[in-house]
Amino acid sequence: MRTPRTDERGMALIMVMLLTVAVAALVAGAIFLTSSSTLISKGQEREEEMRNAADAGIELGRSALNGQAVSMPTTGYSTLFANQQVTDANGNVIPNVTRSVYYGPTSSTTGQYGVFGSVVSVITDPSGAVVVRRGELNQESFAKFGYFTDNEGSGICFAAGDNIYGPLHTNDDMCIYSGSPNATFWKTVETAGSITGLSYGTFKQGYTQHSSIIPMPTTAALSLLLAQATIGGMAFTEPTPAASAGQARIRIQFMAIDLDGDGRVTGPDEGFYRVYQDTGATNGDVVMASRIANAYSSRNCGHYHTIAGRQVFFTANQHYKGIKDSLGATVQPPSWPGTETTGIGTTEGNQSLTISSGGAYLCWLGGDEHLQYTWAAGGPKPRNTFVAADSFGAWVRYTATPDPAIIAGLKNPASNIVDTSLANRTILAQYLWPLSRTYNPNSKGVIYVTGRLAVSGVVNSKVTVTASGKLFVVDDLKYAIAPGAAPCLSANILGLIAGDSIFMADNTLNAPWDYTSGSALDPSSTARNYKANSDETLQGVVLTLASFTAEHYANGGTSQQPCQGTSAGRGCLTLTGGIIQQQRGAVGTTSGSGYLKRYNYDLCAYQTPPPYFPTTGRYDRNRYYEIDPVGFSVATFFASLTPH
């Protein structure tokens, strides 16, 4: 065996030493890398904890704003929490780290969709701000609710078959009657009290009992809408003296005009309304066609006859009494087809005349074109309701120089005008109040009436109508663009607000009444309805500081007005939108009187509420934004975003 030389042994020793050093270096490197990785991991974890703490501060801020009803400052910002201790996920205090939460307006405080604001959460350490997060808040509108009450009232409950399609909130206890099928609630249900009869309800998105109370808007808050209406020239005052309790002397009639001749009235500039005002005469019910004891006395109802080649409207009053005595022996309306076989007498002894339920014998509200021509001495004469001299009432003029496009548009068939002659169109166009900013640049989308108001027609706009007193829905209110037929930004939306109650008016248009077929009024006779059908449609969001109800819902004929297979009642009441009311009102009874409710829900009321519709004061729809913490100044931040 060979013995190694001295230099070989030295080299081997050197190699062993180098290998030992290398291994040690690798071990040391591994230890260093592990330590660095641990430090990086801890740094990331700390940063994540700070982000979470900042986001938690935003939620704490929103909760405090809602729960404590903290007022948003007009400008600048307010401090909600200052230098709070911050804890990690295990509840341990993070040393030398604090959180401060601020809030303030960061968009228009008078915008039509409520107050937009921000909550800013700032995490600081000894070096200053290290994490800054902003949560943008939207103040929810009362229009989001399919049903809202402050007081449920006595003995009124949801019943079998009721369907509430929108979010529900009540500041009271609520109850549900037994019966099949269950009452069904399709969206969230909140009650500040408790729910009796829970097992009789089907809750598609659950329910919450003993939730926080949401205060109703105040009269003072609603009166602020007057300023917006005044800016747009859309503020009106009910004339004096006041009418009777169930009467209004001013009426808003919405109209949609086919300006571009495309056969539709859904264009963005094709929405208008008219304002009708009575003269305060004894027969002041012309505005609402209020139901009277004797149908034959009505000046709103009647029938056309062709006289000397002209279609002439004869009122029921004229048909019944005859006009032979007052206007001469040769002047007398023709007989009433279908109900009368003899000539009309000259006295009130002929009580066989009744209003027919046929489509030709109808009633109209005061000022309607159908009532323009009536009988007068010497033959048929036009009643001009576009001048204040008319004995019943007159339309309120908007301008003496209407846009030629509006005059031309009235001739288009879709505009649905009775007389399309150039002379009539030229006059009528002067009385059309525009809803679009094309024709009224100052419009804020708000109409305000000081006093009581009657409203009807076809709405093509986003508009809020407010009455300081009672508001009467005197005929169907429908959208030109059917709910759900277009995206919400281009859809129609109507808000109805009243400082007093909102009624489905008890008039000859929408409340069937018993008329005799004999010699006297007979409650057991057939119920007649002046409308082409017995249903009532209200497309819009209703808010009243009193109740939403139907006048005399328990009276009148109930056996000849079916609603979707139900023979009793006055027909269907279809509401598309929501009802917000101080105390729940009644529109029908379990015995079959009144209307049967068909309450739907318009999602656009949640997404794009009516202009300047009241807000609940609660904030929702958070969106988080990260803000560069370097040199962050809370004062500078809010100053840059506060509206001017």
Task: Report on this structure.
By secondary structure, the chain is α/β, with parallel strands linked by helices. It has 3 domains: 47-140 and 619-641, no CATH class; 143-209, no CATH class; 219-613, no CATH class. Helix content is 17%, strand content 31%. The protein contains 9 helices and 36 strands. Strands 5, 7, 10, 13, 14, 24, 26, 28, 32, 34 and 35 form an 11-stranded parallel sheet that branches. Strands 15, 16, 22, 23, 25, 27, 29 and 33 form an 8-stranded mixed sheet that branches. A 5-stranded antiparallel sheet has the order 1-2-3-4-36, sandwiched between helices. It is globular. The N and C termini lie far apart (102 Å). Residues 1-6, 322-361 and 514-530 have low confidence and may be disordered.
The average pLDDT is 78
Helix/sheet category: alpha/beta
SS element count, helices: 9
Count of β-strands: 36
Query: For the report, how would you describe the main beta sheet?
Result: 11 strands, parallel
What's the helix and strand layout?
Blueprint lengths: L5 H62 L10 E10 L5 E13 L10 E10 L2 E14 L5 E5 L11 E2 L3 E3 L3 E2 L7 E3 L3 E3 L3 E2 L4 E3 L3 E3 L9 H5 L1 H7 L3 E3 L12 E7 L14 E8 L22 E7 L2 E6 H6 L2 H4 L34 E2 L9 E4 L2 E4 L10 E3 L8 H6 L12 H8 L3 E2 L11 E5 L2 E7 L2 E6 L3 E9 L13 E6 L3 E3 L8 E2 L12 E2 L7 E9 L3 E3 L21 E12 L12 E5 L3 H4 L7 E13 L6 H8 L3
Parallel strand pairs: 5-7, 5-34, 6-9, 7-10, 8-11, 9-12, 10-13, 14-24, 15-25, 24-26, 25-27, 26-28, 27-29, 28-32, 29-33, 32-34, 34-35
Antiparallel strand pairs: 1-2, 2-3, 3-4, 4-36, 15-16, 16-22, 16-23, 17-18, 17-19, 20-21, 30-31
